[in-house]
Amino acid sequence: MSSLARPSTTTIIAATVGTLVTGFVAYAIYFDHKRQTDPEFRKALKRESRREARIARTQAEAHGAQQKEAIKAAVEGAKEEGFPTDVEDKEAFFMTEVARGETLCQDGADQVEAALCFYKALKVYPQPSDLISIYDKTVPKPVLDILAEMIATDPSISVGRFGGSEGGSQHGIDD
Q: In this predicted model, which residue has the larger pLDDT, 56 or 155?
């Protein structure tokens, strides 16, 4: 009688894994060889890369346009809500908005909403340029960039040397 030994389960698994790894390595070598030697394949890869870059750029531009519209709408909404006129109300409003903005920045929530809080606080602050200097040191850059766009859409904020109505003649631009 012949005694043929059955291979163990671990031997079968090891052989299967070895075959799969060998196939993957062979495919990687084939792909690398094709990439290096076939000009049409390289052109196709470059075309695909450019197409993906174009799509990413288009999406980024669309997102930027949407964000600008959201910023403009937020500023208009804040103007429609109005701002307090009484000194005590302004002070309370300022403290509330700054606290909300800081909380939203820490939570990583909506950056436009956080910037809007800082914008509202800026609207009631007596020296906007001083507050912008403080914001520059404490507010995260993405939120600060959105805040700068909000300030740019609102010509009623006079921020002195940072922009607004006073900046033109200081830079040699006549009105």
A: 56
What CA–CA distance (Å, rounded) separates 154 from 109? Answer: 24
What is the distance of C-alpha 124 from the center of its chain?
28
Contact indicator for 136, 144 with CB cutoff of 8 Å: yes
The contacts of residue 168 (CB under 8 Å, 6+ apart) are: 174, 175
Euclidean distance between CA atoms 151 and 157, whole angstroms: 7
Q: What one-character-per-residue DSSP string does 49-96 give?
A: HHHHHHHHHHHHHHHHHHHHHHHHHHHHHHHHH----SHHHHHHHHHH
Percentage of the residues of the chain whose pLDDT score is greater than 70: 87
Return the ∠ at Cα 163 (arms to 127 and 93), rounded to 5°.
35
Place of tokens 């302004």: 90
> What whole-number distance in Å separates Cα of residue 113 and Cα of residue 147?
10
C-beta of residue 161 within 8 angstroms of C-beta of residue 170:
yes
What the block records as the tokens of 121 is: 């606080």
Question: 137, exposed or middle or buried, with CB in 10 Å at 0-12, 13-18, 19+?
Answer: exposed
Report pLDDT digits (tens) over 133-162: 888 898 999 999 999 998 888 877 776 654
pTM over the 0.90 mark: no
